[in-house]
Design brief:
This protein is an alpha/beta fold and about 425 residues long. The protein is about 40% helix and about 20% strand. Helix 6 links the parallel strand 9 (about 150-155) and strand 10 (about 170-175). Helix 1 (about 15-30) crosses helix 14 (about 355-370) and helix 2 crosses helix 3. The longest helix is centred in the last third of the chain and has 20 residues, at about 405-420. The two termini are about 35 Å apart. Residues about 375-405 and about 410-425 have low confidence and may be disordered.
Length: about 425
């Protein structure tokens, strides 16, 4: 097949979207498919033009306010349409579409090219967290327009599936995420690394992820005085300085990748994730593959991944006393924690990226053939699959300017300027 992947974000920025694209590209390269990646430009001069056999076409972009390492592609529908028309793909893959992906959805529709849209980021729900709740409806309208236009939307969890179906988006199917069980393994546990972050022999409570407001890492302050423990934060982002001030006793390890990350995660005694806006949460899978039990919020992707009282604990979003209680439960009982760890490890075996990527290819073939979405059946083995939703009480107490506000105000202006510069009609 000839496949065009339109990436809202891509290398050198590493996040869940980029990680998924890279694993898919590996699979498509092995199959011998021809792939074009359309992504925002970067200020990094060391980025490759070809990644896993796919040529990367960079569009001019500008940094997003408050997220200087996140860039928004400029230009309008016409520019993307021209690229797609020249490449003539069999299918267009929209990776977590919102800005560039919306343009690509329109361009592909106009050209009659089928599209598979991957719903991976719950952008509208970020609005209240960032103090701009008035943008939530605008953002949901954008999400709905994209996925109503797509030939098929793929979601990573039952929560996300129910969420989109509840908003009238019906061409929706499930596509989970794989995990590298060779890279993330209990065998990577490293006593030397543990001693470097917890020299007093404390048990390690770990978090891995972006340090941004929507991840709610500040909630981990309730764990600061859990006896005999050390909180270790792995990751980087715009909130790092504020979090270092709010969590003075925590160890901030910064961004880790590759084997460094695998070693760190396997060296945790417990993994915690306080974010309530995860459509899946890949880091939970990686922790479980590493033989580490999990305490996470009972909303979104974690509902499918964590089985209460077996592989970890789920707490109602906002219930920080519940978060602390579950952490105390596992950190105070070595036998229970080891049992949870073994169950967590066993629960993710078989969720390989090659198997999930092959499933994605079947979705590509289905939209090319015009095959309709089949209503989801029973949850696949290994995924508990809870359909319930725990509503998140989010306030607008913060007045920090959210990039969404800057984006909503300037996107149309940028598009107009870009099209005018190109000499193309608006």
């Amino acid at each position: 097949m000839r496949i065009a992947i339109v990436a809202e974000s891509f290398l050198p920025l590493m996040n869940g979207v980029t990680h998924s694209i890279l694993r898919v590209l590996e699979h498509l390269q092995e199959r011998g498919d021809e792939v074009l990646v359309i992504a925002p430009s970067t200020s990094d001069t060391d980025v490759l033009d070809v990644v896993h056999g796919a040529f990367v076409h960079r569009l001019p972009s500008v940094p997003l306010a408050g997220y200087t390492n996140v860039r928004v592609a400029m230009g309008g529908v016409y520019r993307v349409k021209r690229i797609l028309a020249d490449y003539a793909p069999d299918v267009v893959h929209l990776a977590s579409p919102f800005v560039l992906g919306w343009r690509a959805a329109q361009a592909a529709h106009q050209l009659g090219i089928p599209t598979v849209a991957i719903y991976q980021t719950e952008v509208p729900s970020y609005a209240a967290r960032y103090g701009v709740p008035f943008l939530e409806n605008w953002a949901w309208n954008r999400v709905e327009n994209i996925h109503l236009l797509a030939s098929r939307t793929l979601v990573p969890s039952t929560f996300a599936l129910n969420q989109l179906r509840g908003r009238g988006i019906l061409r929706v199917d499930m596509w989970r995420r794989g995990v590298d069980t060779a890279r993330f393994s209990p065998e990577k546990r490293d006593d030397g690394w543990r001693a470097s972050v917890a020299p007093g022999g404390e048990r390690i409570i770990g978090y891995v992820g972006r340090l941004a407001i929507e991840k709610q890492v500040e909630d981990l302050a309730v764990l600061a005085d859990v006896p005999g423990t050390r909180l270790v934060i792995v990751g980087d982002g715009p909130q790092r300085a504020a979090l270092e001030e709010a969590l003075p006793n925590a160890v901030f390890a910064g961004f880790l990748g590759g084997e460094e990350l695998a070693r760190a995660v396997a060296s945790f005694d417990l993994f915690v994730h306080p974010g309530a806006f995860e459509t899946f949460c890949q880091t939970i899978q990686e922790a479980m593959a590493s033989g580490v039990p999990v305490v996470a919020t009972g909303r979104g992707g974690p509902l499918d991944l964590v089985e209460n009282s077996r592989t970890g604990w789920l707490y109602e979003p906002g219930d920080l006393a519940g978060l602390r209680r579950h952490v105390m439960d596992l950190m105070g009982d070595d036998a229970k924690r080891r049992a949870f760890a073994a169950a967590a490890h066993a629960s993710v075996q078989g969720r390989t990226w090659p198997a999930l990527s092959a499933e994605l290819v079947r979705h590509y073939k289905a939209v090319i053939a015009g095959t309709p979405v089949v209503e989801p059946g029973p949850t696949p083995a290994g995924f508990p699959g809870r359909a319930c939703e725990v509503r998140v009480p989010v306030g607008s107490e913060t007045t920090t300017a959210h990039p969404l506000a800057e984006l909503a105000e300037t996107e149309s202006v940028r598009e107009t300027k870009a099209r005018t510069a190109e000499g193309v009609p608006l």
